[in-house]
Amino acid sequence: MAQAASRSRRLLSRVAEHSTGIIASVLFAAPIVWAVLSAFKPAAEARLPPLPPWPTTGFSLENYATLNSFGEGLWVSAQNSIYVSVMTVVLSVAVSVLAGYGFSRFRFPFKDLFFILILSTIMIPFQSILTPIFLVLTKLGLHNTLTGLVGVYVTLQLPFSIFMMRNAFDAVPREIEEAARMDGASNLTMLLKVMLPLVWPGVVTIALFAFLGAWNEFLAALVLMTDQSKFTLPVMMTALQSGRFGAIDWGAVQAGVTVMMVPCLILFLALQRFYIRGLMAGAVK
Amino acid sequence: MSSITTAATPAPPRARRVASRQQWIGLLYVAPAVALVVVFFLIPLGMTAWMSLHNWPLMGEHSYIGLGNYVAILRDTRFWNALRFTAYYTVIVTIAIFVVAFPLALFVERPRPLTNLYRTMFFMPAVVGFASASLLWSWLLNVDSGLFSPAAYDLGLIDRKFNLLATFQPAFWSIIAMVVWKVAGFTMIILMAGLQSIPQDLQEAAVIDGAGPFARFRAITLPLMRRTLALALILSVAGSILAFDQFYIILRGGPRNQTLTAVYWIFNQSFVSFKLGYGAALSMVLLVILVALSLVQLWLLRKPEGLD
């Protein structure tokens, strides 16, 4: 009798727990799902309130086509965003792996000073030095170029990614290098052939953070990219949403938001383990 | 010669010279990173200070005006209003994030079936950018084509469609709701890490001593989570003080310029009015505030005494 009562109480509390979990999950997912589904409505239906969120008058890609006809078009901005994000990933990984290795394995003058300098950039937000960055890029002939924007984004990633990579290299036992050195490997071959496979998880983590950072950044892109053909997705979409290309087409906004969100979500779901790891490494230290 | 004998006996001069040359190579490895930080951080930082002492239009000559810009800031009531609004927003949004994130962290901390799924669901909005989230919510909040107002109307909660973005209070709380939706999962993960680092036997000992759940939370959980709480607090405060995307995209600083944040005001002065020198001086003020906060943060994050 008492046993049955306690079992049913346990069942009840489990039901309560999972209903809370499911309701909260639905609340968090709803805005994303709403936008992704509504984007597939025909243009006429997309103007109306999204009730229900899924298309009721037929599935359509009209909103994506409309979006491509605004200004320089969706495809140009998407290409710009892809270029900037991929370059940021490649360069910040290359620079951080080299620097992480250097800080972990060598003793040289000003080592501590350089390390502290790089980490301290976290304390000063780039928002407060955007004006001179704009002037520096102009001086370098990189004004209004995607390359200049990549330079800024890579620098923004450095404190986190160099810190991550130095710790990753620190965790590799020195005996491995010594054995490789006996076999006559030079410094750089050793880094690429011996060390890199051992710090691979760290590389994936910093690549993921670099991609998300560059793909989602808005203010620097807004300030530094003045030419429509150079707009990244957030800047292009904001121009559209502010009515710069005429009346606001909410169907196109839904389509654009979907294009902006989906790559982030896919990467996160695929590489969740590395994302949380990076977050913890940043959080615990 | 093996490394063991090198360590035991002093190396001959030649070998040592080779070794120290080897060490210098480290400079080459860190050089690209240092170069980037110099070009895109140190020089701009120095220039901000230098420019703040000048009248610096986008076109034409700039002229030295000493502390003129700073004197102007003292009289710039709109800047102080922006700063006051930013502080207000920071306090409210930080409280709101914690109120949502802490229960979520407690909820997903214990392993049970589906916990991983819940964590992922709560975290998803955090990987979406602030710009995407703002664009998405600007649609949901729209009075005619959006979700909230038409849905409330259809459900009979209101008799006519209500524009959430037209007046300060509903607009402000809409932004708070959006930011909480976007950031709570992130804060949750950090708090969860802190909760998981509390030794289980401590909790069990307290249960044996007869401490109730509330007493345990106050006497064990909170004190042992001090560093985690401080970190979550700092991340939230630092992010909120620099808020720009959501106010620019959803509200354009309105209604009636009431939601201009500090970064927004600097952006307006520098890149809309092109008063670059004045913008730099405003940046210096913001910078001083943020560095002061960073120092507070280092103090909050200090290692507990006796532990290292």
Put the structure in a nutshell.
The complex is a heterodimer of chains A (285) and B (308). Chain A is mostly helical and 285 residues long.
Task: Summarize the structure in words.
The complex is a heterodimer of chains A (285) and B (308). Chain A is an all-alpha fold and 285 residues long. Chain A folds into two domains: 2-62; 70-248, MetI-like fold. Chain A is 74% helix and 0% strand. Chain A is built from 13 helices and no strands. Chain A has helices at 2-38, 43-46, 62-69, 74-105, 111-120, 130-139, 146-170, 174-182, 187-195, 200-216, 219-224, 233-241, 250-284. The longest helix of chain A has 37 residues, at 2-38. Chain A is flat. Chain A starts with a helix and ends with a helix. Chain B is mainly alpha-helical. Chain B has two domains: 3-36; 76-300, MetI-like (MetI-like fold, Orthogonal Bundle), CATH 1.10.3720. Chain B is built from 14 helices and two strands, in the order H-H-E-E-H-H-H-H-H-H-H-H-H-H-H-H. Chain B has helices at 3-8, 13-51, 68-75, 77-109, 115-127, 130-140, 148-154, 168-196, 200-208, 213-224, 226-241, 245-251, 262-272, 276-300, and strands at residues 54-55, 63-64. In chain B, strands 1-2 form a two-stranded antiparallel ribbon. In chain B, helix 4 (77-109) packs across helix 13 (262-272) and helix 13 packs antiparallel against helix 14. The radius of gyration of chain B is 26 Å and the shape is globular. Mean pLDDT of chain B is 87; it is low at 1-11. Chains A and B meet through helix 1, helix 4, helix 5, helix 6 and helix 7 of A and helix 2, helix 5, helix 6, helix 7 and helix 8 of B.
